[in-house]
Amino acid sequence: MKILLIGASGTIGKRIYDRFAQKHEIVQASRTGSDVAVDITDAVSIQKMYEAVEKIDAVICATGPAKFGPFGELTEDDFYIGIRGKMMGQVDLVRIGQRYLNDDGSFTLTTGILADDPIVGSTAVSLVNGAVNSFAMAAAIELLRNQRINVVCPTIVADSAEAYADFFPGFDPAPMDRVVNGYVRSVETKITGRILRIY
Amino acid sequence: MKILLIGASGTIGKRIYDRFAQKHEIVQASRTGSDVAVDITDAVSIQKMYEAVEKIDAVICATGPAKFGPFGELTEDDFYIGIRGKMMGQVDLVRIGQRYLNDDGSFTLTTGILADDPIVGSTAVSLVNGAVNSFAMAAAIELLRNQRINVVCPTIVADSAEAYADFFPGFDPAPMDRVVNGYVRSVETKITGRILRIY
Asked: Which of A166, B8, B91, B193 could lock B140 by a disulfide, CB 3.0 to 4.6 Å apart?
């Protein structure tokens, strides 16, 4: 398959790349333009990316900004970092991408456990994760040409568990192989509309 | 209790008003200004509302715009109707209101079954409902002064079931008393961080 991977340089993205590159052709997209440049907060940039890469069988997004901070201090602009980033960035990858993705193609988005299990400081991130989970279930019943969509929703992941340990006390880190398996299940099986919780 | 009710003229809001008015003082807020005017899509308007009404024990929001439409046709602006309305409108009622609400006060927001069970045309509405559900769970663990927050998340409701029947085939309408009981449980018990699904 020809797979468009957005966020290949991130903690999870690097592992996704390593696994999928073993048997698929990967086109890497990022702000700085690995194979192709994209700013997912900008619908025009997303459209240009899809015009530049042709005949894609799967889109995987493993990136998207959102802001942590005490709820008593977060401004409306702080919320909009995640809304324009991890939330509408991923929505627009599907909204615009459905016209470009091949028949039988799949979208795989990324959210996280904070949709279900918040921590202190996560209001703006929980909001975005819950939004994308529900959006994906809804989009799944409307996509045409046998296209599919799923979300990988991991808990704290092993490769960054140490860095975030203080914010996620008592959260069991998921081994990277288990996390990447979520993306593999989404892309290589025929499921759709699923939130693949890696908890 | 002194209760601020936003959206008292809506299908659910009218029923909330009738029940709560039996034993509480209700201040009605709406765009056209019943007791006090508010445009929940505008943070400045929300702040002015809270400054105008004093010593509130509970805030109930039973309103918020969001747009239905085929996923293949929805624009980014269509999504932002719900994002600025039902989503950030309700977030801002809490974000700003936490400074004004009395100690031990409660926020009760409204979402709906489309967060969990989408229908054709609901991507932008499902997104918003899922967002507010996760946001409320997160805000619950950060609110100070013993303030609480819950969400009433009903299925299609009896009073508007006929009008929406074609869009919700096979959905059992919830009796209005059961729906209003969600708001009563949120306001009059001590629960917090709960999504009260009235399915």
From this structure: B193
Which of B40, B79, B117, B134 best tests the A interface by mutation, with the highest count of A CBs <10 A? Answer: B134
Alpha-carbon gap, residue B108 to B104, rounded angstroms: 13
* Per-residue model confidence as pLDDT tens digits over B20-62: 999 999 999 999 878 999 999 999 999 999 999 989 999 999 9
Instruction: Please list every residue in chain B whose beta carbon sits closer than 8 Å to the beta carbon of residue A72.
Output: 98, 142, 144
pLDDT attached to residue A34: 83
The answer to whether A87 and A128 are in contact (CB under 8 A) is yes
pTM of this prediction?
A: 0.98
Contacts of A114 in chain B (CB under 8 A): 134, 138
ipTM score for this prediction: 0.98
Residues of chain A numbered 108-137 and touching chain B (CB < 8 Å) = 114-116, 118-123, 125-135, 137
